[in-house]
Structure formats: structure tokens, C-alpha cells
User: Fold these one by one.
Assistant:
Number 1:
Amino acid sequence: MNKEILNKYLNNICSDEEFEEIVRWIKLQSRSKEGRSWSFEQWKKFVPELKETEKKKYNTLLDKIHHEINLRNNKGKRERFFQLSVYEWLRNAAAILFIPLLIVFFYFHSDYKFEKHEFSEVKIDTVEIIAPIGSRAVLQLSDGTEVNLNYGSKIRYPRNFIGDTREITLSGEGYFNVAHDSDKPFIVKTKKMNVIALGTEFNVMAYPDEDLVSSTLVEGKVMIEKMIQCGKIETIGVMVPGQHLTCNLKTGKIKSSKGNIDKYLAWKDDKLVFDNEPITGVVKKLSRKFNVDIELADDVKKYTYTVTFENDPLYLILDLMTQITPIKYTIFPRNKQKDGTYSKQKIRIEKQE
């Protein structure tokens, strides 16, 4: 096989006979030392002509691939070679129709093999969105589902749903308005509980630093699954609109209530609704919303609050808490760190004397 035939193949203009010649060469001659060396050199040199629209499309894709590769940087000379070679190859040949055959060929027959585990970890079809502490986020998935992420939450999902289900992974709290698809259930996975729906609106809370995972159903129906030992799944039941369900990850106990669910959903409208909420729960939500560390003295943990805040600054909320209960708070100055940034704001709440 010569260079001309290979270039015609890479540009998707080879004839059936030329394609068969390439396949025969791969089967019979590619394993030789000369074949491996020659093919690798052609691989590095190949530069196809791309249309402007193709350049924009594949440059976007390659930026994402390069980002993933950079995340795995500084792992040794072998991995650095992988980053440079793969990026150059993809930049040159990403628009080619028959690229999977060449990838398989170079992976299995080249002396310049990649590390298999590194290659498999580059998931170019996976998207991760993070709403940092102090921020919320709204996004739309490829199926039309709308997701609201609460403060300090993270969601991971495929760019395009493939297969019989639409699966996403949630850490934190999210409100889902799911696009209906009777053939593909929508599954929200958390560390110990799965919520399965077809087309509905519901809320899921599963912060990694809390022992409670909860789901609140607004419309439609959802099925709840609980993760048990040895990777097994246990079906808890089906929720109905207006129902709120909580699972305690430590005890395994399930609690369900039906009625006013507004307080569980108010966060997406930038409201804080507390209904006989312990102060421990109040400060957790304040910490996430305002990106602060709040420390509680033991003698104030018995207090509870029933109040609604809407777009109020933190100091007004703290002032109101001091009027409702006999507490006081101290705000400590932020310290400048070695890298020039400042530490997170710290607040201590204790009982008034």
C-alpha cells in the first residue's frame, strides 16, 4: 500500500478496491516493524483540508478533549507523549468518516501504544456542571429537560442520551422539569437513592455532607429506589404529586409526608423558607447561599425558626434571628492567604448572656 491510497482513504475518496487493499494491508503487513513505523509517520504528517464549518465544529470538540487531557497532566513522560500525539492526531483527522478503523489499527499495532486506562478515562461525551457555593445554575439537557441547581451542587450527564434510559448523577440539590419520553425513563442518581421518571417535575436533595436524601414531587409520578449492600437496589415505592420523601442514610429509615411542599422548592425562586427548622439546618442553608462558614455554640442548637426570607442580605437575616431567639453573632475578619486570596468569611453564633 502506498501513501497516495492512504491519503485518499483518510479523505474518504478511495474506491472500493482501494479500501479493500487497505484492509488487506492492515491484516497481513501492518504487524511488521516496517509497517508500524511507516503508518505512524503517515499518521503524524496527515493534514486534511477542512471546510470552515467543520473547523469550528471540531475545534470546539478538540478544546474539550484537550481540557480533559490537561486534567491528567504531570503524570510522567509517557502520558505527556499521549497528550501531544493524540491532540495532534485528532486536530488533523477528526473530520474523517472512517477514523474508527484507523484508531483501532494504531492502538493495537503501533510501537507507540497509549496507556489504556488513560485513554478510556477521556469521556468527551460527559458534561459536568457545578453551581459553586454562593451561586445557582440553570441548564437545559439535550432531551429538553430543564434543571435548576442549588448552591454548592453538581450534576454530571451525557451530552446526548444514548440507550434505553436518560441517566444523570446529582450531588447537592436540583429541581428537574423532565421532558416526557415514554421510551426512555429519566433517572437521577445520588449516592444512595435513585429517582426515576418519564416526564414530570420534582426536586432532589442529596448533599454529600448530609445524612438525609430527599425527593419532592410536583407533577406526574416518580419511582424511588434505594441502594443497599452489595450494589443491590431496593424499590421503595411510587410517589404522587405533593409528596415529600426523606431517606436517612445512616439508619435507613424512610419518612414520607404529603401536603404543603413549597418550602422544599422555594430555593429555586431565591427564597429561604424555614418551617420549624432547627438552627443547624438554617445555618447549613445560609452557609451554602452566602459562601460563609458558620460555627454554632452547643447551647444554641435547641432553637428552631419559622420564617421566610426573600433576597435578604446575610446580616439582615442574622439580625432577625437575634430578635427571634436569644442569640448573638460575631463576624471574624477574612485573612489574606499566601497565594493572595482571602479565606472564607467566618461567623460564630452563641447564646446571649
Note: Residues 73-124 have pLDDT under 50 and may be disordered.
Number 2:
Amino acid sequence: MTNHTDLSAAGLEQRTAALEAVFQRKGNLPDGFVDDFSAMAGTTFVTANGARMVARAWTDPDYRARMLQDGTGAAREMGFEFPAWHQKLTVLENTDKVHNVIVCTLCSCTAYSIIGGAPGWYKEFEYRSRLVRESRTVLKEMGLDIADDVELRVWDTTADTRYMVLPLQPPETVGWSAEDLAGIVTQDAMIGVAPVASARS
């Protein structure tokens, strides 16, 4: 009888090691792939990419229009790429009358090559299920109180489409450089669960 290790109570590192061993045994995991991919993701798939896009949109009206029409093209214009399995990026513009927020009800997908890997709370079942049903309540619990006269739109990630929010620019930051603006744009703001604060990072 084959001896199978019970991983039901195993920690993350132990489960990861077990999966790597299976993939390697089947020839599906080239030597060094995990380390190489982790290093690449740590330097390439970061929140700073989306922050730079937002900052440029705030300072360049032509780029802003292109970004809202074709988020994928706008990202590639700045040298950012996407995995083969999600080639479409849609950018959602927040205004004084419309607030957008994103979720993945099936799992925890994000445009991670643009806004970074999903934070822990984004992956939790409570956020994924309640945001759709109790949007304003959930956002208020997270510290963002949306006024009743502002339309709240919840966008659920699909198999091939990823979203990012173009947040409102704090009025007091008009005239800042794109570099300074990028420094205040957070992942939470590009998910839509927090405003952009004007304090310089």
C-alpha cells in the first residue's frame, strides 16, 4: 500500500514542499523555477506599478483617457505585462458621484502584476461574500464611509478580466510631481476600500 502523508493539519511551508515534490517527480517543475519565479514576482509584481499608472493618469489627461479606454494597453505603455491567463485590465474611475470597489467572489484574483498580490483580508470568505451583499457596511467597517448620494459599484473579477480602481486625487495634491503622487497611492485605494491620503510617504 502506498504511504500517503496526511497534510490536512500541515503548515503552509510543509504543504508547499509536498506540492513541489509531486510536481518535480512528475517532471512538471523545472529546477530552480520556484526560486526564480519568487524573485521575479517580488521585484516585478508590485503595488508600485499601479501607483505609477494612477499618478500618471492624475497628471496626464491623455494617458488617463487611454487608461480608461484600454487598461491593458496603458499598462503595457509603461512597460508592465500580464500573465497569459489574464490579459484584460479594466480601470474603474472613481468620481464624486461613483465609487468602485473590486472583489473576487470565487477565490482571490487580482491584477497582481499591476497592484500587487492580494492582501490577506481580500482572500477571506467574509470579505468575498459580504461585500456583494452589504457593500456599504463592509466598507464602513474597514474605515471607508460612502455617502448615501454616491453610487457604489462592486466589480467581481472574472476568469480573464482583472480590475483596478483609479481613485480620486486629493485636491491638495494637485501640482505634485508624478513621483510624489505615486508615493501616496496604496493597494487599498486601487482595490477601492480606502481613499488616497495626501500625506507624503
Note: Confidence is low (pLDDT under 50) at residues 36-42.
